[in-house]
Amino acid sequence: MSVRGRVLVARLDDAGDVLLAGPAVRAVAAHAREVTMLAGPNGRAAAELLPGVDRVVVWRAPWIAHPAPPVSAAAVADLVAELAGIDEAVILTSFHQSALPLALLLRLAGVGRIAAISNDYPGSLLDVRHVVDEDVDVPEPERMLALAVAAGFEPPPGDDGALAVRRPLPDVARFGLAGRPYVVVHPGASAPARTWPAERHRQAVRELAEDGHRVVVTGTERELTAFVAGEAGLDLGGRTTLGELAAVVAGAGVLVSGNTGPAHLAAAVGTPVVSLFAPVVPAARWAPYRVPAVLLGDQDAPCRGSRARLCPVPGHPCLAQVTSEQVVKAVRELMQ
After folding, report:
1. What per-residue string of b and e applies to 291-316 under the rule 16 or more CB within 10 Å gives b?
2. Which of 5, 10, 110, 289 sits at a 20 to 30 Å CA gap from 176?
3. Angle at CA 87, nearest 5°, toward 85 and 91?
4. Are 54 and 36 in contact (CB under 8 A)?
5. Per-residue model confidence as pLDDT tens digits over 43-93
6. What is the rounded CA–CA span in Å between residue 267 and residue 271?
7. Mean of the per-residue pLDDT values of the chain
8. Are 318 and 300 in contact (CB under 8 A)?
């Protein structure tokens, strides 16, 4: 297998999106002398967990980050200087993002070969322009891997294309989770439109405990996790790094989560998922990848395909109609 030079892989949004880029990153790493991952601030910890990544550079892109920072000549100059010496780049994006602003900055940094998906005319910004039919919903890991292959980075022999994280995972013995099985409930999400109501989460934790499950509640929003855990769950809110969260989820029988990073983390460690999935983005693209999963939520709700961060429909019907009883039943199914 021929060895190419220093290759940049970019995925500039959130942790879950970076985790979904894992198969593409491994394909690049199989051929590159060094892989630099360019990530946004919210994706840094996930990039550090990916097998094949040698170095992580963090940059807050004004056309992707939310809230969007102002365009700064100084910030652009710093990025261009940081990426000097990169030979090739593979820009990974979702169907609603443009790769061309970053391609322009990479040209300024002297990157000689750039690959990206682009249905817009790229001029001299791209050397490998991979065009896809965006009306066809393809799982994000497969969409990104297809770009890597188009750029000449075939997956290494024996790589099955599943999500993965670096092993071994951190020791989480201090949380006292050894012993009988447990269920992880992760109530938060970066976009409010993707969240199940907190009261429903709390009720589900209580009913899961009544059904005989030990329940662990995770997340970064400590007030939310404390409320959801109540007296029935173990609250780990704000107490784990992303690597430690991966270890906690890996030890669980099931994860209960919305469409957010930990659902993809569960897929990367092989844990089944009860997915509380708001259809603001297609489940065919972003549902938990290649793990047993039960998808809950009205996928034909009026918010379907809106990409909304805040629910555009009064009452949040796509998820508000999901009951705690449905969650408990789904957990039972996945733990059989």
Report:
1. bebbbbbbeebebbebebeebeeeeb
2. 289
3. 110
4. yes
5. 999 999 999 999 999 999 999 998 899 999 999 999 999 999 999 999 999
6. 6
7. 95
8. no
pTM: predicted TM-score of the whole model, two decimal places: 0.95
Helix 324-335 and helix 198-210: axis angle, to 10°? 50
The two tokens of residue 332 are 């039972």
Percent with pLDDT over 90 in the chain: 87
With CA atoms as reference, report the closest residue to 249 among 226, 287, 219, 208.
219
114, 91 contact by CB (below 8 A) = yes
